[in-house]
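Lecture 7 notes: from sequence to structure.

We start with a single chain of 170 residues. Read the sequence below before looking at the structure.
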Amino acid sequence: MTTNHTGLNLTSGIYRLSLKSHFSPEDNSLAKLKKEKAIAKSVKLEGYISPAGKLVIPAKSFEQLDLPIDLTWVKVGTDTGKRKIKTLYLVPSDSEDNGFELVKAAKSYTISLDIILKKGGIDFGQTKYSFTLTPFTDESGTSGYALKLTGYLPKPVYTGKPSGRKPKSR
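Now the structure, written as tokens:
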């Protein structure tokens, strides 16, 4: 019996592989493979103010917050002594007194604050505002989320065709 440089046994013209390691059927099964769990990417906690004056928190951001699932009311506040709103504060509430309703939409949660935002100097009709959510705890131990307004982008000008019928030319 002769052996060549590849480790194959050469006997009478038939190539036989010399076994150096043995495999079992369990080695070829998917149960044996250990896939590392994908590390969940933390979603940046942000939202925006809609053209109708609603605070919109996307569902992906809302799931990251440490809020009860059945939460339907929140208290909203701002910094005292400021004329223009730069930060809003959301504190979970159990009852509807002095609270705003948190409404579940298709892919987000909304809070209607149109009049308060207008009084606070936020022109959401002409400008697109976005905010980031950060947790806070005040001196009295109340915990909630601070919504810091970040984006002040003017809405793009509509350049498409006007809708409706063409005016008659005379």
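The chain has two helices and twelve strands. Keep this in mind for problem set 3.
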